[in-house]
Design brief:
single chain; 491 residues; Rossmann fold; UDP-N-acetylmuramoyl-L-alanine:D-glutamate ligase; ten-stranded mixed beta sheet; 22 helices; 41% helix; 15% strand; elongated; lyase
């Protein structure tokens, strides 16, 4: 359980609840502030020992209090420290205490960056909900232009801790020290690119309080689902590892299905069959060996196949074509585990509720894998809502569709109908290549075929997809990625 806890994310409002519950439990807020400020000072000394001066920007709230404690600790260590504060008052004096005379204090507007400064940003942290004041926006520009190292306390000021977007303007940190758990804004883009290296510090909030507050949102990691991955055993049989069917498009559009099929085979499905229309049979037959081939042209033929074959899971969409045939085939699979990708998703853009209604029964067994454009076709109201984070959009979409959602992008979010959601962070930049989504669909299909629940199959496959890309290396093609789809987890 403890290993799970370190991956969990807390929204700013949840963090505020955790602070309040901690105080109610008998732990003083002053103790939390002291531990946080001391940790910031230690990080500053450890990672920025070259500083000629530590400049601490202190805001009016608890984030500012952390900054005052950090300034005191730095002065106690013999460093040169200057505090620039938004609201000069008794709080700063109390927290600086005997070291006040060794610390220069001035209004925030008076700060002028100079070479040798290391800036400690303790203005707002994660709780900000409105655009930063003009004074802070000007400081963001000044410090950015001076290219000074910046250590952010909790979150770079101006960055929304819930959505990961700048509120008017936001600092770009070299390093961020946050407390207990990260916020969604640390991992969602563009927030992730503004935080630099993230250090998580335990300031003494009891784990039971964190567990009682979290919504089940986390950074995607094997600790969360690794125990559900199939492990081959000596009594294994291909049918026990599931039969995956991948639907091919017409002649001239068959490559995507074959990529999915190869990835499914590599990811451990016992058998994989490409279900092909008649006009694509010859081109598919010429390119398949270990993967089987079966001709499927109509919904009637598909139904007959479903009635007679031991088929465990399906992938429909890569290169399939948009239209009535995709809708018919998808709806025939409404009681089967299905990965609906690409053209399969777009085929329901005129009537998404038809799809959602069909898969509304039983445990979730539909996985939707939309990129930004496809997400907006199925969920236009959610896509256009700028007040929601990408994570919140994915969670609401999963609940509406009764499906696991893989909302793709550089900050892919995987969400379940029950409200759980993971943000993926391990994908290398070269994963953004043509055909990589087809490979991901096949990997998810393989885990579904082996009996892994839909949400965990999706989350595991997204993570393993990133690991496969690392194994394939820079300059990889989708074919290289598919060849590495069976990558094993370290340890």
């Amino acid at each position: 359980m403890k290993s799970h806890l370190k991956h969990m994310l807390l929204t700013p409002s949840e963090m505020a609840k955790a602070d309040a519950a901690t105080v109610d439990s008998g732990i003083a807020l002053a103790d939390l502030v002291e531990r946080a400020g001391q940790a910031v000072a230690a990080s500053a000394l450890r990672h920025f020992p070259q500083a000629l001066r530590y400049v601490v920007l202190c805001g009016p709230g608890n984030n500012g209090k952390d900054g005052y404690v950090a300034a005191r600790a730095l002065a106690q260590a013999g460093a040169s420290v200057a505090v620039y504060e938004m609201n000069e008052g008794q709080i700063g004096k109390d927290l600086l205490r005997a070291e006040e005379d060794a610390i220069s204090r001035a209004p925030l507007a008076g700060y002028q960056p100079r070479q040798g400064d290391v800036v400690i940003d303790a203005l707002f942290g994660a709780g900000l909900t409105r655009d930063v004041p003009d004074l802070v926006a000007e400081l963001v520009n000044k410090i950015g232009e001076a290219a000074l190292p910046l250590l952010a306390v909790d979150l770079p000021s101006g960055l929304c801790g819930r959505r990961g977007v700048p509120l008017g303007a936001a600092f770009k940190a070299t390093r961020t020290v946050t407390f207990m758990n990260r916020k969604p804004g640390h991992l969602l883009l563009p927030g992730r690119s503004l935080c630099g290296d993230i250090e998580i510090v335990d300031i003494g909030i009891p784990a039971r309080i964190i567990r009682s507050i979290t919504e089940g949102w986390a950074e995607n990691h094997p600790d969360l689902w690794g125990h559900l991955l199939p492990v081959p055993d000596e009594n294994g049989h291909k049918y026990r590892r599931g039969h995956l069917a991948v639907f091919s498009g017409p002649a001239g559009r068959t490559g995507a299905a074959r990529l999915s099929a190869l990835a499914g085979l590599k990811r451990g499905a016992g058998l994989v069959t490409v279900a092909s229309p008649a006009d694509a049979m010859s081109v598919n037959a010429a390119s398949l060996t270990a993967i089987m081939l079966h001709q499927i042209d109509t919904a009637q033929v598909l139904q007959s196949w479903l009635d007679s074959a031991k088929l465990a899971a399906f992938v429909l969409g890569p290169g399939f074509g948009i239209g009535e045939k995709a809708r018919q085939f998808s709806l025939l699979l409404k009681v089967r585990p299905l990965v609906l990708d690409a053209d399969g998703i777009t085929s329901f853009r005129e009537n998404p509720s038809e799809l959602f209604s069909a898969f509304s029964g039983g445990d979730p067994h539909l996985v939707l894998t939309p990129h930004e454009g496809e997400f907006s076709r199925l969920f236009p109201d959610l896509a256009g809502n700028t007040e929601l984070s990408k994570l919140e959009k994915a969670v609401r979409a999963a609940e509406r569709a009764h499906a696991a959602i893989v909302y793709k992008g550089a900050d892919t979010v995987i969400a379940a109908p029950d409200g759980r959601a993971y943000i993926n962070t391990n994908a290398p930049p070269w994963l953004a290549t043509a055909g990589s989504g087809d490979v991901l669909a096949g990997m998810i299909g393989a885990l579904l075929a082996q009996g892994v629940p839909a949400f965990e199959a999706a989350a595991a496959s997204v993570y393993l997809h990133g690991e496969a890309a690392k194994a394939a290396g820079r300059g990889m093609t989708a074919e290289d990625l598919a060849a590495h789809a069976g990558v094993e987890l370290d340890g």
